[in-house]
Here is the input.
Amino acid sequence: MNFKISLLLIVLVWTFQLGMAQEKKKLNADVEFENARKLASEKQYREAINLAYQILEQYPDYTDVRIFAGRVNAWNHNFSEAETQLKKVLAAKPDNLEATLALADIYIWSNRPVEAISVCETGLNVHPLNSELLMKKAQAEYKIQEYDLSKTSLNKVLEIDPQNQQASNLLKEVNSDNWKNKIETEYYYENFKKPYIRHWHLSTLSYGRRTKLGMIYGRMYWGDLVQDGEKWYGAGVSRQFAIEAYPRISQKKYLFLNYSFSGEDNFPKTRFGVEVYQGLPHAFELSAGYRYMDFSQTNATSRKINIYTGSVGKYQGSYWLSFRPFLIDNGNDFSTKLSLTIRKYLSRDDSYLSLCAGTGTSPDNPAIYTVEYDRYVLKSRNIQIGWKQRVGSHFQFDVAAGYEKAQYRQNMWRDEFITRAALAYLFK
Here is the structure.
């Protein structure tokens, strides 16, 4: 009997000690979680992530730690890993509000607004009056220029929380961006001094209209090739008329279409372009396109140029990077041009700094609108910096300056300088 009592006491003590050890171990996990949060607050993201993963190895169902790991990965721009961690939480607990909010943030930060809207709508099915979900949905709708939908979401936020300053501020931006019409004037200037002094003045006046299908523009160009000592925009001014459109096929796919014509000396007789853009997961974008120019009206020999192009773009936080090659067939041979563009977005999607560098004069460069079709086969290296900025509700300016080291004959090079300035007025 005494043996049985002793054995029972041993089992009870062992069970108590095991429970205390497990509780102590869990307590240690909580302490380590607090340490990880401290590291993150000090922007030691990699250390915080490693510590969170150590906790999850022992406690894979520690939901708060997994959400924390997702958020810190996002702060460290590891969006794919952040998405993976948060989707694990939502797979086990679809109604988890914190994981839903965090995943919506990741999609907004990584420029995937369509996915953000989907996540918010799923969350709102469970939490219909949650102002944070509505706010993130409004932000994503604003990014894809669904201004009416964004206004509806923001008004719901303000019904729930009338003092929400973030919603009030975004509503002002939505109202200022909800324009339908755009009038823009642009001036482009390029000059060089070898083998002779030349100035290329190009002015543009355009009207754009935002429609349900996308933006459409009508443009008129005035171009004048001025020799040294001649007057600007004298008797030799040529004109070109153009129509340009950006029809949207779906939330992730849109087109670029352009058609221009001129019967005068300084422009191609016909200029045509088409390109399709496709958004991809992880904030990538691909495109494939074609350009065509016919210079035959100024030369007895037909000069018809076919250009094949495409691009790979990537949004990374507030940056956008794009690589674009051109394969050019001028009727006699092929040449290639390459360009790399980097944009740093400022406070708005229509305000940014840009840097563009490349080899060869781009067929999208206004310098190529002239009849100097031989520039397609000559080598060059170029760089350009730019600044586009929205000012208030109605105005937008765009300025750029560039330099090109270009061939004008085989093994003979010249310096070319480019400036551009544009001012647009936006209104309903």
About this structure: The two ends are 95 Å apart (CA to CA).
